[in-house]
Protein 1
Amino acid sequence: MTLGWLGIVRLGLVQMAIGSVVVLTTSTLNRVMAVELALPAALPGLLVGLHYAVQLSRPEWGRRSDAGGRRTPWILRGMAALAAGGTLAALAVALMAWSTGPGVVLAALAFALIGAGAGAAGTSMLALLASAVAPQRRAAAATITWLMMIAGIALTAGGVGAMLEPYSHARLVTVVAVATSAAFLLSALAVRGLERAPARPDPAQARPSLPLVLRQIWAEPPARRFTIFVFVSMVAYFMQELILEPYAGHVFGFSPGRSTTLAGMQNGGVFAGMVTVGIAVSGFRLGSLRLWTVGGCLASAAALIAVAAMGAQGPGAPLAPAVVALGFANGVFAVSAIGSMMQLVGEGRQGRDGARMGVWGAAQAVAAGVGGFAGAALVDLARLALPTPSAYGLVFLLEAALFLVAARLAMAAVAQARPAPVPAPLVPGE
């Protein structure tokens, strides 16, 4: 089976649905726990870290995809778990307002479901994308699907932010339940009939064990270098994820709806950054993937310094433009790295594309968990000794330093990645 552009867009709808559910847990629910419920920022950091820890199963999903069989059922099961986890997480936050202990227990179950669902659906979708898309279309396909994910995140954050006003816990549960149900239905419709014939594994071939597959991939220098780059850059990328909205609430007086809208604006900037790189590299051949990746890391560091500086001004400071600039720089870095990933996924031992994608996904998941928790915990610790604006600013500056390290690593990690080819026109029904 070879997917045309319409099939790629349909898989992009799955990626969009995944992003729309995850953004609710990492932005809206995180902010409510930290600000409205006045719980330590480390709590949502631990919960989000749990959901990323569960995604260490990603290489296993990739290994199973490599061994054959239909991937659509794994996508649907993953999306069902993701939607259920998102709704349970909203219920858990509402329960915390009445009884913190039971609410935290329910939240732990919910975030574990979210991690399992995102890992199963996301890795299966990427494995299908990598195996069913022609090599010359892979980089463009990755850009399309990630742009759609960012669009889903931005639209969901903006729409949910508007629907949450005036805020109440009951309204939160209702809005999140509707959003997660819509995400599952969108995914089900997107993959319906996409795999026209089941892919059957060859019974004569023994399925290699996961430890063997991981050793083989780690022995490949390009895969190993790229894994290290992914880990460091994603720690930097996710350190601000759990503290940006509380920062807007604590320092600038933003309401829950307004801070959620701010997250939507940030992801709008990410979308614009991705489009810019796609047009520049694929359309006009301006620069290499390595150049754009390094530039995105450096620009992200500069934007974080600007966000940190806003804290000294407090309410009334132009926080939104700085956050949009941060999003734009993050988008430039992210789509360049994704293009490199789609080019590198086929380099090395054959029959390991899905597992290789799973290794990079697991590195991202671990880094996201470490980065999210570290950012939140460091803010809690810094606030014990520093004024709140300075505490947040210190963490943003640390994140900027990590982006500088990531820029250096990118010089070697993506050196072999070729620019994405110019995509063919989108032909309806292809």
Protein 2
Amino acid sequence: MYDLYFQEDMKAPLDEKEIRARLDSFLSELGVTSDFSISFVSDDEIRNLNREYRAKDEPTDVLTFRLKDDDTFPDVGEVDEMGDIFISLDAVSRNASEFSVPFSEELTRVMLHGLLHLLGYDHESNDFKSEVMLQKQEDIILRLGYRS
């Protein structure tokens, strides 16, 4: 269903069992059965990806690469492989400090954010009041009890 990868010099951000439990709850909530991967990387690695694929020479918290690159949402059984999610653990740590939330909560949020992007959701800004994707993300986080 999904694979987890950790950059060689990065240690697992949470117990791998806990990461899988959170991902499984998201997949169940969203009705997703398609395959994808999540790679946990450093700022340097995600900056390289961001520069190469988005022409932005800066680190970011999450990048997604959809295999079906159009504006349609995949039918749950239709796509065998949705794509790949890359998460910078350095950026997640900074976000957690900036937003005064536990690291585990911010990591959970960023994992769900990447998954929603793979499903075709997008947002123009980070305004939670006007962005449907971000509202959906926070509703799921709250409903599943991952917000402190």
